[in-house]
Amino acid sequence: MPSGPRILVIDDDPYTRDLAATALRGRGYEVVAAARFQQGLEAARAQRPHLLLCDVVLPDGSGVDLARALHHELPEREVPIVVLMSAFSRGRLADQRRMKEEAKAVAFLTKPLSLPAVLDLVQQHLPLSPPAAEPPPDAETAQLMAPAPPPQAPAEAAAVGASAALAAAPAPQPARASAPVRAPAGAPPGSSLLV
């Protein structure tokens, strides 16, 4: 399980919530997800996130009210808040100004989300520390991880195959000295066989 900085994603749309959570986990962040205002508030109190991605409209409250409550309850921590909003809401500048002031939002993202935009924005406000160096793999693992040889052209493969067949064939045996053997009965006199 990732052990990077903790992000709380609050959105009642399961697709948006799961998409953001999966992408962030893949980058090494620890993600806590909630679907409702009250769940998000409880998760924030218990988990103390380092960044909040929050939908502006939740079934049981406002993302702005949630952000305001978190700033009130966690005054010692400046938790960056990224507000998620529909394209319709995005166009209302008065709402954006109010959210920026009241929620202390650092950014706004329009849904449907662009994963590169989410990841870039989160990295900007909550950078990951460089990963710790991994120990070198053992010999067997290193062999399994080694790149495969490049594919060969058909003519080259045939030549390699013929060379391999020759290499696998038994080596010729040295010639043995032949010894005369008596000819079978009824053979002309003075004839012999070489074996």
Shape: elongated
Low-confidence stretches: 130-135
The major sheet is characterized as:
5 strands, parallel
Radius of gyration: 37 Å
Average pLDDT score: 74
Strand order of the main beta sheet, please? 2-1-3-6-7
Q: Count of DSSP helices?
A: 8
The portion of residues assigned to helices is 40-55%
Return the structural class: alpha/beta
Structure, explained:
The chain is of the alpha/beta class and 195 residues long. 42% of the residues lie in helices and 19% in strands. A hairpin with a 2-residue loop joins strand 4 and strand 5 (61-62). The radius of gyration is 37 Å and the shape is elongated. Residues 130-135 have low confidence and may be disordered.
Please supply descriptive tags for the structure shown above.
195 residues; five-stranded parallel sheet; 8 helices; 9 strands; 19% strand; elongated
Layout of helices and strands:
Blueprint: E1 6-10, H1 14-26, E2 30-34, H2 37-47, E3 51-55, E4 57-58, E5 61-62, H3 63-73, E6 81-86, H4 87-90, H5 93-102, E7 105-111, H6 115-125, H7 139-145, H8 154-168, E8 180-182, E9 192-194
Parallel strand pairs: 1-2, 1-3, 3-6, 6-7
Antiparallel strand pairs: 4-5, 8-9
Short description:
The protein is an alpha/beta fold. It contains eight helices and nine strands.
